[in-house]
Amino acid sequence: MNQIENLCKKLGFKQADLATYLGVSAQLLGMIASGKRKLPLGMLSRLEELEQICRIAEQKQPDAERTQLFDLHQIETEKALQDHASLCRKKARDVRKKLSKLEETTAQIETASQLEKNEHSTEEMETPELLLEICRRRATESLATNQTMAMAFLKLEIARYEFEEKKSLEMVALKTF
Fold this sequence. Notes:
By secondary structure, the chain is an all-alpha fold. It has a domain at 90-177. The chain is built from six helices and no strands. It has helices spanning 3-11, 15-22, 26-33, 41-59, 63-119, 127-174. The longest helix has 57 residues, at 63-119.
């Protein structure tokens, strides 16, 4: 069992809780735990603090000292969760701006395409012009499809950030860390 798994077991944490406390993603912590990534120096001091908390708990130090360390841990974890929620809120806002610009551009392209379709009747065109018009329309349709897919992706990204923000705030409110 490695250092991270040991700490999780001793503290009764899930790996995701420990990741939040350390200020990293659960995926990064998983890679560190499995030996795929090395432990960043910034995380080392926080891990040492947690190990100290475990040692104190194991040695049955006076309750006041143990309580003080656990209170410090709780305050830091709550702050990390609030910071994470704030970051998610900011990222969601930034993605909403991108989505809004993309929706605006898509609407402009669709309007321009409709106007051009109305102006050019394919029955009046000669063969080379007709081929060019067909190619132009297909390119416009392809662009619209790509933008629709991009908008769907951005909406999913917003939903993910909103979900992460909500979960972080719930953990703070319920003190489930």
